[in-house]
Specification:
The complex is a heterodimer of chains A (121) and B (683). Chain A has 121 residues and is α/β, with parallel strands linked by helices. Chain A has one domain (4-119): Response regulator (Rossmann fold, 3-Layer(aba) Sandwich), CATH 3.40.50. Chain A is 40% helix and 20% strand. In chain A, 59% of the residues are buried. Chain B is an alpha+beta fold and 683 residues long. Chain B folds into five domains: 2-131, Four Helix Bundle (Hemerythrin (Met), subunit A) (Up-down Bundle); 152-285, Alpha-Beta Plaits; 311-361; 366-541, Histidine kinase-like ATPase, C-terminal domain (Heat Shock Protein 90, 2-Layer Sandwich), CATH 3.30.565; 546-682, SH3 Domains (SH3 type barrels). Chain B is 42% helix and 22% strand. Chain B has helices at 6-29, 34-53, 57-74, 82-101, 107-128, 171-181, 218-224, 248-260, 266-271, 305-332, 335-359, 364-381, 398-419, 423-428, 461-470, 482-487, 510-519, 597-600, 668-682; strands at 152-160, 182-190, 206-214, 232-241, 360-362, 385-390, 395-397, 435-444, 447-454, 523-529, 533-541, 546-554, 557-562, 566-573, 584-587, 590-596, 610-618, 621-627, 629-637, 651-656, 662-666. In chain B, the strands form five sheets. Chain B has a five-stranded mixed β-sheet with strand order 6-8-9-11-10. In chain B, strands 19-12-13-21-20 form a five-stranded mixed β-sheet. In chain B, strands 14-17-18-16-15 form a five-stranded mixed β-sheet. In chain B, a hairpin with a 3-residue loop joins strand 10 and strand 11 (533-541). The chains are: A alpha/beta (121), B alpha+beta (683). At the A-B interface, helix 1, strand 2, strand 5 and helix 5 of A face helix 1, helix 2 and helix 6 of B.
């Protein structure tokens, strides 16, 4: 069965690139424009992985990750975050919030896909 | 494939730049506001990240440096200063340039970007009191390929923390990844297991050792653990070159290790003899999934504006056709058709409303330009001015907003230049040295009212009157109300300043403002009080292409009056009105001036029996229009007039009627305005 990916990013162009790449690979894709928007998809439906940006209005990536980790249904779901910072601090913060891994922007489609297959198969 | 999204990125980046600019201007007045700083940081961050993704490397590089400043601000290491704001605003212009041209090619451009970056870096350097120290670029973890052609065997010990499963990591995948690098044997070890009753499903009590034979460099092995390196003990040791897995002695060691639950020791492995064998190349794991269209939900989307124009246009056509259908249905008297026509009318109205709602955009999107103007201009002139906005969320047809910008810029420029005084002057007048320009927008019926209010020195009506007399625009003996005097400003040939100032003298007078606002069926008026300030009021329709009109007949022709301006209709017996003196008619206790449309449009024929007085609200007056017949309410599509009729003073457009005839749309405000002037002249 096709895996469902929830992508969350306030940048439309990034959303489109991710969405296009993933659909091409046969993933089901749900799209949220920010953390707040993403929460509406977390209504019990089956989602295999969340890919979220960190800097977003309303509810940012860290906030989203923390919220997801409190939800019984999604407590242990893999979450990757998109980041441009290679600084350890940002990554540590997101990891501590409960992220599974990260994808460094800029990325090429192959890198995105390999990051995903690192955590879901 | 990235190119495909490049346009989208530029469009979005421009939005980000816009947002950035807006936030910066807000920051200027509210320098500690964390939300604003976050917003700025976020916009820069998107520009940087997106820039790098979509091949705008210079942009990404540049924003990176800029972002550093705001990262420092965000972390309290740096205070927002005038210099930072000015430099960032300057940077915004540079970013726009970069978005336009892509990466810099011209060597001069490259030099100037370098100089610019240095300026940005200096902000941080000065704070540090150290010479400019370049922040390292964020390095993507691209693994450096080691020049190593030989294959090697590794012993990898991997001991995850108990909590590793919690955050969605699956250690088996990591073992799989190692397998994918070459040939591998994985040995599991159980750490001290708790009692069964204490055992938690979500805890990991397992560790692994993997013997891997691979051609991949060690960094690629490390890369497998990149997400979990902080949550695991990982130890990667090279055993030797060549493949240890083919060594028969290895089996003994491994078996011993498993039965004793004791990890393998590197030195033990290194002592056994290895044979060289061919590397097993990495196998493709996982077959490609089919490309299928999947369910994909987006809560909002961006549409090209010409598509919306087209939609509105089509809806307009539909509304016209629907009106024809209605007319036909009513005339036919056939119940089925009438019912159908009614339904279509209902639907097309909804469709029309929807289409229009789509084409409305909030004023907000343009306000920042005004804000920037006030800021830059007041700085140039040495004035201190706050630009306060209220009602930025008010929505208007995008065509109206587009046409509104230039006149608005002019009006605001006027307020900054002529309205608000210099700080010293203000102090003398007992005002605070800082002036305010207040931008206020609100709905009023089907119109939108925009007011630009400054607390400057105001305009002296007497001065305007004298000027108008001097210029021969009015007669010296003419008695004028205050409002009428301020209206003189809009006459062409009127300019209150003799010397053209550098700021406002751009060849656009208030007459042009008035005309431009008139072109979008708007009205503009000025009110002012000496010493207190000036208020410019714009009244604008919400949309341009469709109006609810009142269809009237004058002579042979039909005309449309926007219903929003109609107050009341009175019917009179034929010739009652025509026989009145002075064009004043008493209704009840009130007297109304009126304009006979039959005279205006030179219509000879009259309809026997009765004539109609339509009371129109124009600005603050009520004026009657006389027509032969009122046909009824009529929703109509306004089409612009062609070249020959465009300059007509009182007609703002035309509409195609159900029967194919053309009805002109009367611009009541201008009609009344021009008739008033005409009468004044003849008097």
């Amino acid at each position: 069965m096709a895996k469902t990916v929830l992508i969350v990013d306030d940048s439309e162009s990034i959303r489109e690139v991710v969405n296009f790449t993933l659909q091409n690979e046969g993933y089901d894709v749900l799209v949220g424009v920010d953390g707040e928007d993403a929460l509406k998809f977390l209504d019990g439906r089956e989602i295999d992985i969340i890919i979220t940006d960190l800097h977003m209005p309303n509810l940012d990536g860290l906030g989203l990750i923390r919220k997801v980790r409190e939800m019984d249904a999604y407590k242990h779901i893999p979450i990757l975050f998109l980041t441009t910072e290679s600084q350890a601090a940002k990554k540590m913060e997101a990891k501590e919030a409960g992220a599974t891994g990260w994808i460094i922007k800029p990325f090429v489609p192959a890198k995105l896909l390999s990051a995903i297959t690192r955590v879901i198969r | 494939m990235i190119d495909k999204f490049k346009d989208k990125f530029v469009e979005e980046a421009l939005d980000n730049v816009h947002d950035l600019e807006e936030a910066l201007l807000l920051l200027e007045t509210d320098r500690q506001n964390r939300d604003i700083i976050e917003r700025i940081f976020r916009a820069m961050h998107s520009l940087k990240g997106g820039g790098a993704m979509f091949g705008f490397n210079d942009l990404s590089d540049f924003t990176h440096h800029l972002e550093t400043i705001f990262d420092w601000v965000r972390n309290g290491k740096l205070q927002v200063s005038d210099h930072i704001i000015s430099l960032t605003l300057e940077s915004i212009d540079h970013i726009r340039h970069l978005l336009e041209i892509g990466d810099l090619k011209d060597s001069q451009d490259i030099q100037s970007q370098k100089a610019f970056i240095l300026k940005v870096q200096n902000v941080i350097a000065q704070q540090n009191n150290t010479p400019s120290e370049v922040q390292p670029q964020p390095v993507t973890p691209v693994v450096k390929q080691e020049k190593d052609d030989g294959t090697k065997s590794y012993l990898i010990s991997f001991e995850p923390e108990q909590d590793i499963l919690k955050n969605g990591t699956n250690p088996f995948f990591l073992i799989d990844d190692l397998h994918a690098l070459g040939e591998a044997v994985a040995l599991p070890f159980f750490k001290a297991l708790p009692n069964f009753s204490d055992l938690k499903v979500i805890s990991c009590h397992c560790a692994w050792q993997v013997i891997l034979y691979t051609a991949a460099p060690i960094n690629e092995i490390k890369d497998v653990f990149i997400f979990v390196e902080d949550e695991c003990k990982i130890d990667i040791q090279e055993i030797s070159s060549g493949n240890i897995l083919t060594n028969p002695e290895l089996k003994q060691l491994v078996d011993g290790s498993i039965s004793s639950n004791k990890p393998l020791v590197l030195t033990a492995l290194q002592t056994i003899k290895q044979e060289n064998k061919q590397v097993i190349t990495q196998e493709e794991t996982g077959s490609k999934k089919k490309n299928t269209l999947k369910d994909h939900k987006i809560s909002s989307m961006r549409v090209a504006s010409n598509k919306i124009d087209e939609l509105v246009n089509l809806v307009s056509e539909l509304v016209t056709i629907q009106a024809q259908l209605n007319l036909y249905a009513e005339n036919s008297g056939e119940p089925t058709i009438m019912a159908l026509a009614e339904n279509i009318q209902k639907l097309s109205r909804q469709l029309r409303d929807n289409a229009f709602e789509i084409s409305l955009i909030p004023l907000q999107s343009e306000l920042m330009r005004f804000q920037r103007l006030v800021r830059d201009l007041s700085k140039d002139l040495g004035k201190e001015i706050d630009f306060v906005i209220e009602g930025g969320e008010i929505e208007l047809d995008k065509n109206i907003i587009e046409n509104l910008i230039d006149p608005m810029l002019h009006l605001i420029r006027n307020s900054v230049d002529h309205g608000v005084e210099m700080p010293s002057e203000r102090l003398k007048a007992g005002k605070s040295p800082k002036g305010t320009i207040f931008f206020k927008a609100y709905y009023s019926g089907a119109s939108v009212i925009i007011k630009i209010i400054d607390d400057g020195k105001g305009i002296d009506p007497e001065f305007i009157r004298r000027k108008a007399i001097e210029k021969g625009l009015i007669d010296a003996k003419l008695e004028l109300s205050k409002k009428e005097i301020f209206d003189l400003v809009f006459l062409s040939g009127f300019s209150t300043r003799d010397e053209v100032s550098d700021v406002s003298g751009r060849g656009v007078g208030m007459d042009v403002v008035k005309r431009k606002i008139g072109e979008i069926r708007g009205e503009v008026a000025i009110d002012s009080e000496i010493g207190k300030g000036t208020t410019t009021t714009l009244e604008l329709p919400m949309t341009l292409s469709i109006i609810d009109g009142l269809l009237i007949k004058v002579g042979q022709n039909e005309y449309v009056i926007p219903i929003s301006s109609v107050e009341k209709i009175h019917e009179f017996v034929n010739a009652t009105i025509s026989n009145t003196l002075n064009n004043i008619l008493s209704i009840g206790e009130k007297q109304y001036p009126f304009i006979d449309l039959r005279t205006v449009f030179d219509a000879k024929t009259q309809i026997e029996g009765s004539e109609q007085l339509i009371l129109i609200k124009s600005e603050d007056k009520i004026v009657g229009l006389v027509a032969d017949q009122v046909i009824g309410e009529y929703q109509t599509v306004v089409k612009p007039l062609g070249r020959y009729l465009k300059k007509h003073e009182t007609i703002s457009g035309a509409s195609i009627m159900g029967n194919g005839n053309i009805a002109f749309v009367i611009d009541t405000n201008r009609l009344i305005h021009f008739q008033t002037i005409k009468r004044r002249k003849t008097n």
